[in-house]
Design brief:
Blueprint lengths: L4 H22 L4 H36 L5 H14 L1
Length: 86
């Protein structure tokens, strides 16, 4: 699978969020603020994971259909990846 700039940019934003959380901890910010930011990081990672799985599924399904094969196996693999990511 080719990883697009959009996929990489999503993870770069997460990287920035994590650096921000570390900075907050170094500055001894309130625990609630740190938790809020960690929750935002988790949400961003979940969205990036779903996006990558979806794009991979799309590419694989198109390849399967071009070959005249059923995309059912691709769909099942995507479901397994989503379940595993949680």
């Amino acid at each position: 699978m080719k990883y697009t700039d959009d996929m990489k940019n999503r993870l770069k934003r997460v990287e920035g969020q994590v650096r921000g959380v570390l900075r907050m901890m170094e500055e001894e910010k309130d625990c609630k603020e740190v938790i809020y930011q960690l929750t935002a990081v988790r949400t961003a990672i979940d969205k990036a994971t779903a996006y990558i799985i979806g794009k991979n599924m799309e590419q694989c399904m198109l390849e399967q259909m071009k070959k005249g094969e059923s995309p059912e196996e691709v769909i099942q693999e995507a479901i397994k990846l989503l379940v595993k990511s949680r």
